[in-house]
Design brief:
The complex is a heterodimer of chains A (364) and B (120). Chain A has 15 helices and five strands. Chain A folds into three domains: 3-72, Serine Threonine Protein Phosphatase 5, Tetratricopeptide repeat (Alpha Horseshoe), CATH 1.25.40; 89-239, Tetratricopeptide repeat domain (Serine Threonine Protein Phosphatase 5, Tetratricopeptide repeat, Alpha Horseshoe); 247-361, Beta-Lactamase (2-Layer Sandwich). In chain A, strand 4 and strand 5 (329-335) form a beta hairpin. Chain A is an alpha+beta fold and 364 residues long. With 120 residues, chain B is an alpha+beta fold. Chain B has one domain (3-119): Dynein light chain 2a, cytoplasmic (Beta-Lactamase), CATH 3.30.450.30. Chain B has helices spanning 3-12, 40-60, 98-119; strands at 17-24, 29-34, 66-73, 76-82, 86-92. The chains are: A alpha+beta (364), B alpha+beta (120). Chains A and B meet through helix 14 and strand 3 of A and helix 2, strand 3 and strand 4 of B.
Amino acid sequence: MNLIQKLKIRKELKRLEARVHESPSPSAFIDLGQVYINLGMLEKTVALADEGLALFPQSAELRKLRKFAKKNQLSARITDLRAAMAKSPSPGVYSELADVYLELGDMDAVHGLTEECIRRFPQDTGAYLVQARASLTAFYRDLSARAGIVAVELIRKAIKIDGRDAKAHKLMADVCYRVGALATARRHIDELVRLGVGDDEIRNMQRACSDASGDEDLDALFHRAEFRGGLARGAGGTSGRTGDPLKAARDALTGIVQIPGVTKAVYIVGAKALVRGDVNGGDDPFLRLVRVMARAAHRAARRMDIGSFNKGVVDGNFGRICLCSFGDALAAVQCEGHSSVEAVLEQLQELVANSLVGSEGGDA
Amino acid sequence: MSSMEQVVTELAKASGVRGCAVVTEDGMMVASALQGRFEPDVVAGLASFVIATTRRAMAQDRQDRLDRFVVHATHGKLVLSDIGHAFLITITDQFVHLDLVLRIVDEATARLKVLARIDA
């Protein structure tokens, strides 16, 4: 490149930078990013794309720009790490390389590398933690309970190998805190404090978990996050609640089961359930059926981009099943085909709304 | 244009309907008339997922026939209607008068059931 060409590019760069600051738009960021890429300024491109995404978070083009720049930026790092691994393989290099692939979103490469690392260095925790982070990425993105449960299993394996692994305790405390398992989070935070690890984030979590105690069903909490489509983030987690969240629902459910044609009525909040009518206690398959239906409907509605599932009606040779869901709470009835759907749904809606208000107020 | 496609195209023109499709139980798209924002493969896969998981859970409760599943969501409604070995999927907006749409959907379902039998 001769001097005149360099001057031309510099002038163009100045013009585009001014345009980004004076009249920012996705296309202004993309144009400037393209010039940065042509000049090999990948770090600047990533920073520019981040800046653009902060202003235009929905821009697919800016996301593409960031991904492209990041991929090129990390490619050099991958080459270095691969060379280091060929020279003297160590668990650290494996984990670092797997981390780079995780950042790129290449899950096959992450899986391959971590499995190889576990085979060669079974007493190292690094690979388990990279796998756990990969599962957690999937959990936070899709709120898939299965991914969360797998992540916890992997972190537990790491802690079993090395009970003093601060990264493992930190990861566990963080995910438990987010799904609302405050007592479990507290145990891992206490361990971090014993290990002398403490930052503002840990101290904030410690304050929020200070009153939590007892055992929690982590699987149920992951399923709850998937069902409600959101994380508890520790605030207002189950262990922090006072009062019985089912209390407000009891009378209403008794009233619903008296509607002509209604044979079964259930109300579920979190891991607790209340049943009325022709239901054989808490193990009745109807409870599982309505949970599965609500979860499937919730997932389909979200992925089809038609919002959050709130009501459903299922018809079959058994009659009719009406469902109503809001946040953590789900109410459902089975009734005969001729029953009034509107009346039943209205009652269910009221039951769910009132009981939620009651439980949040703590005086249910 | 096959007759099934005719039925779904007509149904998709109804007021408030954003799209409809005929999907087999294992997620194969038979006919569709969906608005651009709905990916046919995604719609087919999700509908098949809802039907399969619901049917599996129903079998455990000794309930064996699922005729229709209406899902009300914050920004739309989804109606899954059994036409025998396949399902008619209708997606509507949230403001639609469901009784009116269900009447049209039931008519389309009856026509599709006949066509499904002829095709089989």
